[in-house]
Design brief:
single chain; binds 2'-deoxyguanosine-5'-triphosphate; six-stranded mixed beta sheet; Dna Ligase, domain 1; 22 helices; 566 residues; Alpha-Beta Plaits; binds magnesium ion
């Protein structure tokens, strides 16, 4: 028998759960402020997925059929909400904003986030008077004390939650609700108690009361319809049923861990941690339709999806290495639809990176190449020589790699950065000399499927500085160059395998600027890089090409080599 009473409970954390009010509707109201004053519904197909609070006063509810909503609110303004682009964008802006308060921010859907503010609370309590009042609402309205100090922490949590919400309103023009407690379950439930634009704190002594206020086990976050059905079969409907149930029966119905987890939840206990949400593993779009049975139309639809998707991916900033096609086929014999997917790898060189914004994009050639890859996948799923009936097409990118991915991510990052700058210089100095092959490859977007982004060549830094000198190019005072310097210094600190060389370069004497380098650029570089450039220049001056390639042969143990290896 699982004895909940004897399990010690931890109140040490402070968790804030944030939920954006009528999310899609707020995004639309920001776009068209006229909508703030009038009842607004957001529709997807023939249902309302949400409405603003003006509409809710008329009785408009989530998931109502449009026709029903118009019956209760004839002057309801309806905006299409099928395209999630703006919602997704705003959603990530909110998460980014919350990350100012903690690294532990976990996204839950598009409009909810958990923020673990434990550390911030502890810091504030060290410096501020702990005798503060709860901001917002207090569940059950009874103040209490607890020997572990959680009451003071939760009060401070409520102050922070209020600051967060004010910040989101000020920066992003969104009103939100917050729940504050010592675990995720209670914070989430508290959040929904007072809406819109309010916040609620739950203290430990009221956790069970909050759970018992739920009308049904299905209201427990995490209990889906499958669990709900299983519980119904063993006559567990209410929270009280769950608390009082025969534990062995529950274990037989669910597995042991899940049974224990559920009983814990029924008492308001939840020790799950706030997991930092990474960026999405897949970015995709789908479009459903009544019927698609002509190849040219399929191609056109995929083209539209692809263009839209590229915008999403470019904002994400990572490069996808897999593309996936999804279809929903309607079988006219069995009268059922089913989904199928097919995916394949794509070469990162299909994408190019904008030199200034660093956003990724596709050129026309790559666009055609990708579309033909998509159509090939489609044809693997559908025999286009026979009649077919498609009711949904989807495209998604997955398996992302960072622009500076891999073991030597820092190195690749700075070298890519240099590569981009070097390309700029080549473009500008076309009349001066032929571009180096390696740099051409870096900026190539020929769309070859198997092409791997070339590793930067060792001579780029040298080329960069020397070209810069010849062109008098102001681009090279860009912050990315300074980043290069910082990263090199950091890497050097963490490495002990190359000390002979690094000890030499760590000296603070001034290093002479090679005559072919821009003095201002050179001055900005860290001394070790300066040293290497000077050495390289000395080594190469005997066979220097008067037009270019002053650093064509780097020595085997250079810093550039060091970066490539590490
Ligand atoms: P709230 O939090 O009660 O003030 O209102 P919302 O609109 O923020 O509702 P919420 O938090 O449940 O959902 C966030 C957004 O997700 C909402 O604005 C629209 C969308 N959404 C909600 N429920 C559904 C649904 O059942 N289907 C679809 N497709 N979207 C939904
Ligand atoms: Mg919401």
């Amino acid at each position: 028998m699982y004895d909940i009473e004897h399990e010690a409970e931890d109140h040490s954390r402070t968790i804030v759960h944030i939920d954006i009010d009528c999310f899609y509707a707020q995004v639309e109201m920001i776009k068209d402020p006229r909508l703030y004053q009038i009842p607004l519904g957001i529709k997807q197909k023939n249902i309302l997925v949400t409405s603003n609070y003006v509409a809710r006063k008329y009785g408009v509810k989530k998931c109502m059929l449009i026709a029903d909503a118009l019956k209760v609110c004839p002057n309801l303004e309806i905006v299409k909400g099928e395209d999630l682009y703006d919602y997704r964008k705003m959603s990530y802006q909110v998460t980014s904003y919350l990350q100012k308060y903690s690294v532990l921010v976990e996204r839950l859907g598009l409009d909810e986030n958990y923020v673990d503010v434990t550390q911030l609370v502890d810091e504030r309590l060290k410096h501020q008077n702990p005798n503060i009042d709860v901001r917002g609402n207090l569940f059950n309205n009874i103040a209490e004390t607890c020997v572990c100090g959680c009451v003071e922490r939760l009060k401070m949590g409520s102050v922070i939650a209020q600051e967060i919400r004010e910040g989101v309103l000020h920066e992003l023009k969104l009103t939100t609700c917050a729940g504050i407690s010592y675990n995720k379950l209670l914070a989430k439930l508290a959040c929904s108690l007072h809406k819109p634009n309010e916040q609620t704190v739950v203290f430990p002594n009221h956790a069970v009361a909050l759970m018992l206020s739920l009308s049904n086990v299905s209201e427990i976050p995490g209990v889906g319809s499958a669990t709900d059905e299983i519980l119904e079969k063993i006559n567990i409907r209410t929270i009280e049923d769950l608390q009082k149930c025969h534990f062995e029966t529950l274990i037989q119905a669910l597995n042991g861990d899940r049974a224990k987890w559920l009983v814990d939840l029924s008492y308001g206990r939840d020790n799950s941690v706030v997991k930092t949400s990474g960026r999405p593993q897949s970015i995709g779009l789908e479009d459903s339709c009544k019927v698609l049975n002509v190849e040219t139309e399929v191609r056109e639809k995929f083209h539209q999806l692809l263009m839209r998707l590229i915008i999403l991916v470019s904002e994400d900033g990572r490069i996808p290495t897999t593309i996936k096609v999804t279809i929903r086929k309607f079988d006219s014999v069995s009268k059922v639809s089913h989904r199928e997917t097919k995916q394949c790898n794509i070469g990162p060189n299909l994408f190019s990176t904008d030199k200034i914004t660093r956003m990724i994009s596709l050129n026309e050639q790559s666009e055609k190449k990708l579309l033909s890859i998509v159509m090939n996948l489609f044809k693997k799923l559908v025999n286009t020589s026979r009649s077919y009936h498609i009711t949904l097409l989807g495209l998604s990118f997955t398996k992302f790699k960072e622009r500076f991915d891999g073991k030597n991510s820092i190195a690749s990052y700075l070298m890519n950065d240099l590569a981009v700058q070097s390309v700029t210089s080549i473009e500008r100095k076309n009349s001066i000399s032929q571009p180096q092959t390696s740099l051409q490859t870096v900026c190539s977007t020929d769309g070859s499927e198997n092409e791997i982004e070339p590793l930067p060549k060792k001579s780029r830094l040298g080329s960069l500085v020397s070209r810069c000198a010849r062109l008098g190019d102001s681009d090279y005072s860009s912050p990315s160059k300074l980043r290069v310097a910082d990263l090199r210094l950091n890497s050097r600190d963490s490495d002990h395998g190359d000390t002979g060389y690094l000890d030499t370069v760590a000296s603070s004497r001034e290093i002479e600027c090679p005559p072919n380098a821009d003095k201002d650029v050179f001055k900005e570089l860290p001394s070790d890089v300066q040293q290497e450039l000077w050495e390289d220049w000395k080594r190469n001056r005997s066979h220097e090409d008067p037009h270019d390639k002053p650093f064509k042969k780097a020595k085997t143990n250079t810093l550039l080599n060091y970066f490539l290896k590490n």
